[in-house]
């Protein structure tokens, strides 16, 4: 089993190790790289054996089939690969940074494709939270092992409470098959990739923290008093007009 790896001072790529996915669906996988490689080409390579793996998609070449998508967030130093229409043949991949005149840096990950319900999944892989508020993520699971909530390349929360990059994290298991994570006091810097884990299986989640939009709703009750006053004025004007008009005949 391949483990989640990040070793200081060593050229590396950090990603999840194994993700359970449903056939026919899509999955996005984040790959964290070191800052000196932000301008390098990144790519996804398909195959269990690195020696014989084949290019799936590269940051400098679009995939005309639409099967694979790739994007590179140079600010966060993460490139993300999306694999669409998953099949049982889409199981072994490598996140790779291309190195000119040297061996490419790579990290393996595995997809466990199932026709049934994945052993670990979330309601939405991409979610939006608002600055100063809270966000809750539900991690549905059916396998055994320790539960974790981690930020990619950072620390993990394994107990009932903790913090990640200044955001308070609380977890609970009220439902035996749902691990619930709540992040409170969100800040813009909390935007990024996280992952929920149950045993050896992980599921990546992208959190976008932004300013809450201002919404204005129209309450018709606010017109009651102005309309009532207007009606009263109209009645008074008509009454005066009637009196004046009537007096002309006398």
Automatic annotation (TrEMBL):
<dbReference type="Pfam" id="PF07686">
    <property type="entry name" value="V-set"/>
</dbReference>
<keyword id="KW-0812">Transmembrane</keyword>
<feature type="transmembrane region" description="Helical">
    <location>
        <begin position="222"/>
        <end position="244"/>
    </location>
</feature>
<feature type="domain" description="Immunoglobulin">
    <location>
        <begin position="124"/>
        <end position="210"/>
    </location>
</feature>
<dbReference type="InterPro" id="IPR013783">
    <property type="entry name" value="Ig-like_fold"/>
</dbReference>
<dbReference type="GO" id="GO:0004888">
    <property type="term" value="F:transmembrane signaling receptor activity"/>
</dbReference>
<feature type="domain" description="Immunoglobulin">
    <location>
        <begin position="16"/>
        <end position="114"/>
    </location>
</feature>
<dbReference type="InterPro" id="IPR036179">
    <property type="entry name" value="Ig-like_dom_sf"/>
</dbReference>
<dbReference type="InterPro" id="IPR050671">
    <property type="entry name" value="CD300_family_receptors"/>
</dbReference>
<keyword id="KW-0472">Membrane</keyword>
<dbReference type="InterPro" id="IPR003599">
    <property type="entry name" value="Ig_sub"/>
</dbReference>
<dbReference type="InterPro" id="IPR013106">
    <property type="entry name" value="Ig_V-set"/>
</dbReference>
<protein>
    <recommendedName>
        <fullName>Immunoglobulin domain-containing protein</fullName>
    </recommendedName>
</protein>
<keyword id="KW-1133">Transmembrane helix</keyword>
<dbReference type="GO" id="GO:0005886">
    <property type="term" value="C:plasma membrane"/>
</dbReference>
